[in-house]
Amino acid sequence: MENREKIINNKSEEFTKEEYKWINKIREEGGCFEYAPENLKSSYKFMINALRIGGHILEHSSKEVKNDKEIVLVAVDRNGYALKFASDELKNDKEVVLAALENDGRALEYASDELKNDKELVLAAIENNVNTFEYASDELKNDKELALAAVIANGRALKYASTERKNDKEVVLAALENDGRALEYASDELKNDKEIVLAGIKNSSIALKYVSDELKNDKELVLAAIENNVNTFEYASDELKNDKELALIAVKDDRFALTHASDELKSDKEVVLTAVKNDVRAFEYASDELKNDKKFISFLFEETNDEFLFTFISKKMQKFKKIFMLELYDGLTEEEKKWIDDSDRIWKNAPENIKSDKNFILRALKSKKMILEYASDELKNDKEVVLAALKNYGSTLEYASAGLKNDKEIVLAALKNYGSALEYASDELKSDKELVLAALENDGCALEYASIEFKNDKNIVFVALENAACALEYVSAELKKDKEIVLPAVKKNRMALQYVSGKLKNYKEIVLAALKNNGTALKYVSSELKKDKEIVLVALKNYGSALEYASDEFKNDKEVVLAVIKKDGSALEYASAELKKDRDFLLQISLLSKYALKYASRKLRNDRDFVLQVIERNWEALEFVPNKLKNDNEILSITLQKWVKHC
């Protein structure tokens, strides 16, 4: 260790001009060391200093250097991945491998088979990066302690556990507690274990997808999944897809659920009506029989008052569309027909006799008019009129009289249609638990309008977050510090991270959960964690353009930016200004992405030689060539040659 520290901390000696040239090349171009002279690739002094800049250049060093423990330690300290290029002897050296794992747990992939079977070492790798469990030996994949450590950190690591551990109830339950989707990797025996399956569904209802055929036919279990997430109706057995009770629950909240119902239920008027009331587009999935049923179509139109319904009726029924519509106009005067046809915004100019005619207003509301705002004060206080208005648009509660805003029946009707109508309820009803729950079941973000006591009520908040993770914005300051509240929210919606307490924005487990949902959540991470390589790499792996929110250090890190560009070329936009001026780096990038030219500095974009070199590497970059060079014959000629070759 002394020798190692001495080498790592030693000040570099004087460099020759050639050595300086290559040190700068490595700093600017990263991957150019392959072409360095052999004497440099074997020079201990040069390699020690060069590896401090980029451990990856070990790949192109001499065999002697790759087998030199002190030099390789410097390389893996800088970049754990460099272990891939060390000699077989050093891949079997515990000190070297541990040093690599401290930098990057994934380096376990390149350790010797012997060390992949070293429990202490594999545990260290898992603690650094749980996904490295994949590279442990078969023997250690069967080690219960290691398997538990892996699945507790990431339930889906169960994928790499041994067959025996995939059949170990304790291990599988621990995995499901972390991520219900881990049921995919459990043994067939446990996929048929009701206790196990319920644990998975409780965490993630999508787990129903992976259960045994027998349990997909278990109504209690399928009901639990659907109540948690109606989309899971898709995974029920064919027999249960023909269960009317389950179908009604599913189609009430998910129009696509009708696509998974049995043919029999697609012809069931009650099921289809429930689906269409939720979303008129669900009629697309009804049976042809119902799409040809004139009486039923007329009834649906009367119930929904939505012309979009006619998009899905049969061609045969299209000829009756006018008849369906004319029923709306029966018995109206020409003036009244005019007002029904006019847009909502013109209604403010309607004559008073029209605004106070109850029968006419009720007819007008059938055509989905948002006209309660313009009705007379008397009609705004008429329960029948207001209920008719709320049937179409819950938000029209805003225009009801103060008395009706304090009427529980009225407010409940509004909330069933539009959860955020809670905003317009009286203060008294904003403190009514039944009404608040009705609002939150429709729209979790309606929590914004609930009374303060409910914003601090854990059970109420859970309902809100279940329906809209962004409701975290309206939770009390105290609950924004509660990990149990925050973790499920950020797993569902990366935007939720912006609303958690400052302390939890610096909590790695919370942040990683958000980033795995969407890398752009990096925007809301604490300044400290924006400097954490593991955090930033997870974000960038999920979404390359999250580079925008990384610290300046990573925006200027060639290895990081290069890795991002390989996935998302447009992310170069967020690289540092320094890298956008780096000619050699951008030429390297141009092989991967046409955006190398788009985001290059203005000076480089107007440099004809640079543009030519980019076009030679990537003809698609012609799109970003400056106007003054777009008609350059040589540029056009090279582009044409490359394009013809590509075709």
Give a brief description.
The protein has 647 residues and is mostly helical.
The assigned structural class equals mainly alpha
Our Rg estimate from Cα atoms comes to: 33 Å
Helix share bin: 40-55%
Separation, N- and C-terminal Cα atoms: 57 Å
Total of helices: 41
Largest sheet: none
Q: Kindly estimate the percentage of residues that lie in beta strands according to DSSP.
A: under 5%
Low-confidence parts: 1-12
Shape: globular
Description:
The chain has 647 residues and is mainly α. The chain contains 41 helices and no strands. α4 runs parallel beside α6 (69-78). It is globular, with a radius of gyration of 33 Å. It starts with a helix and ends with a helix.
Relevant terms:
single chain, 647 residues, mainly alpha, disordered N terminus
Give the SSE layout.
Blueprint: H1 2-9, H2 17-29, H3 38-41, H4 44-53, H5 63-66, H6 69-78, H7 94-103, H8 119-128, H9 144-153, H10 163-166, H11 169-178, H12 194-203, H13 219-228, H14 244-253, H15 257-260, H16 263-266, H17 269-278, H18 288-291, H19 294-304, H20 315-318, H21 321-326, H22 334-341, H23 352-355, H24 358-366, H25 377-380, H26 383-392, H27 408-417, H28 433-442, H29 452-455, H30 458-467, H31 483-492, H32 508-517, H33 533-542, H34 552-555, H35 558-567, H36 577-580, H37 583-590, H38 595-598, H39 602-605, H40 608-617, H41 633-646
